[in-house]
User: Which sequence fits this backbone?
């Protein structure tokens, strides 16, 4: 049974979310401000955090940053308004997903289930080690390194990276990526834009001039394997012994 931490200073909202999540089979802890959220997260090690953007003490952006610094716990951000800046701010701090207030508690529960399922689902058949120059992604173990240093990727960042690495040379528009990676048949395309930007900051030598995750103007994004690489290969590199 997964444990979810709900962080919201509106007691009514927190109570409704708590009830829906418990009815769906989750264990739920609650916090009403930023410092309390960090304390409870430290004690309970939640599997996912539902985090309001506007909080007393520490706002949701800072709480999200500190949670992500501790480990790869999935975060769904609640934004009070539908403004793009709020949504992007939540994604930029490392949130895996966001829901805009007012929201449907049922929809939020489905989002929680979706993020947790993607984080813990068994690897698909044929999952293996994907390589792109200094980047090594183990799809089965859900780990990624660059120059042998571990990369801190969110659930969605990891899924997006694996999906693109498995389809080298093919351009996808943002709606296709939302459907294939997020499982959404509709949604905000800026979600994909922000995740691509965050991935570039972590895997590119120069994020302002990307060579791996390139923009295809008028279409979307494409993974270009490094020159000489065998794209999508799960083979281990050859050793000096052959």
Assistant:
């Amino acid at each position: 049974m997964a444990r979810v931490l709900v962080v919201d200073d509106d007691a009514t909202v927190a109570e409704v979310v708590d009830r829906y999540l418990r009815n769906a089979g989750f264990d739920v802890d609650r916090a009403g401000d930023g410092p309390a959220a960090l304390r409870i997260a430290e004690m309970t090690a939640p599997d996912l955090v539902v985090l309001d953007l506007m909080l007393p003490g520490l706002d949701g952006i800072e709480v999200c940053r500190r949670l992500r610094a501790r480990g790869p716990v999935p975060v769904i951000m609640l934004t009070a308004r539908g403004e793009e800046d709020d949504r992007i701010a939540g994604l930029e701090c490392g949130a895996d997903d966001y829901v805009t207030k007012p929201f449907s508690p049922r929809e939020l529960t489905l989002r929680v289930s979706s993020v947790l399922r993607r984080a813990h689902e068994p690897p698909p058949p044929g999952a293996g080690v994907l390589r792109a120059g200094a980047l090594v992604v183990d799809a089965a173990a859900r780990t990624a390194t660059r120059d042998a240093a571990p990369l801190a990727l969110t659930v969605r960042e990891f899924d997006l990276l694996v999906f693109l690495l498995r389809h080298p040379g093919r351009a996808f528009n943002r709606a296709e990526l939302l459907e294939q990676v997020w499982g959404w048949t509709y949604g905000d395309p800026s979600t994909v834009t922000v995740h691509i930007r965050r991935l570039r900051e972590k895997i590119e030598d120069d994020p302002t001039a990307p060579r791996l995750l390139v923009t295809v103007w008028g279409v979307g994004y494409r993974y270009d394997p490094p020159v000489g690489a065998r794209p999508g290969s799960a083979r281990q590199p050859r050793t000096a012994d052959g």
Q: What stands out?
A: The longest helix spans residues 105-120. Residues 3-120 form a domain with the Rossmann fold fold (CATH 3.40.50.2300).
